[in-house]
Design goal:
single chain; alpha/beta; eight-stranded mixed β-sheet; 10 helices; 8 strands; binds S-adenosylmethionine
Length: 265
């Protein structure tokens, strides 16, 4: 404990905007994607960190509840760099299953199997992303995973990167298809590493161009609803792009690709 107290929280407090159920899509992805779920299920120490939970700890409480369904003895630690937010979360703590502490990218000395950092890096400079990623990855338990992403206030437009000790692995788009005019509407909610890269010549721009094209070709499926249209658009995309998941996920308004599909140039 004394060692923990000496660690200086790395980062800076930012706006604390959050909302109940805002992160349901990434929670559903973590608990429903076999290889991501296994990170929690197979962990020697099932500790999960929610970094930067915001003005209220509601999404941390929800994450803990959802993870408990896949690993009954999971412990969730909410970390915030803003001490007032740590203090105000205390009444909902349920140690050792759910705790809150002050901490930053150094993860307050914890060695979690999984870190979720949502809508945190968004308010930093693009140039700060690589160092923040490395700092968090260095603290993961062996075989651990970092899920770093961004979404809108209601969680209808989301995207995230997963990283392990070797660096970024996958990129996911997740949305409510009825909320979209076209898939490139999601570009406004790209993770910080990509949001400034949606310009011609960059892979993420080429991805959105291709997905918009598939969406247009899938227009006849709109008769069956926007989710059916999204599913068919992603099926078309998968013919040429390194899509990692299948129809069961696409039907939820998701698609996960290899990170190589969007690596900034
Ligand atoms: C916009 S809120 C996001 C809340 C929640 N994760 C969500 O997505 O709804 C961002 C929070 O991250 C916190 N934060 C920013 N940098 C941080 C860091 N390096 N470590 C821990 N928390 C940080 C801010 O203080 C703020 O409360």
């Amino acid at each position: 404990m004394a060692g923990r107290a000496r660690l200086k929280p790395l980062g800076a407090p930012t706006r604390g905007t959050t909302n109940p159920n805002r992160l349901r899509r990434s929670d559903r992805w973590v608990t429903g994607t076999p290889w991501a779920r296994r990170v929690v299920q197979a962990a020697a120490d099932p500790l999960v960190v929610d970094l930067g939970y915001g003005a209220t700890p509601v999404t941390t409480v929800e994450l803990a509840r959802r993870l408990r369904a896949v690993r009954a003895d999971v412990r969730v630690l909410g970390l915030e760099i803003d001490q007032e937010r740590v203090t105000s979360a205390a009444p909902v703590a349920d140690p050792p299953w759910l705790e809150f502490r002050r901490g930053g990218f150094e993860l307050a000395g914890a060695r979690p199997a999984l870190v979720r950092a949502f809508n945190v890096l968004r308010q930093y400079d693009e140039a700060e992303v690589a160092a923040a990623w490395t700092t968090m990855l260095d603290r993961l338990a062996p075989g651990g995973l970092l899920v770093e992403g961004t979404c809108d206030e209601l969680g209808r437009r989301c995207s995230w990167v997963t990283l392990d000790a070797g660096g970024p692995r996958t990129f996911t788009l997740a949305c409510r298809p009825s909320d979209l005019d076209q898939p490139s509407d999601l570009a406004e909610r790209l993770p910080k590493a990509l949001i400034h890269r949606n310009v011609p010549g960059e892979r993420v721009h080429a991805l959105f161009t291709a997905l918009d094209h598939c969406w247009a070709r899938a227009a006849p499926f709109a008769n069956f609803g926007p989710r059916a249209r999204w599913t068919e658009a992603v099926a078309m995309l998968a013919a040429d792009w390194p899509v990692r998941d299948r129809r069961t996920r696409w039907r939820l308004g998701e698609v996960t690709l290899d990170w190589a599909a969007v690596t900034p140039s």
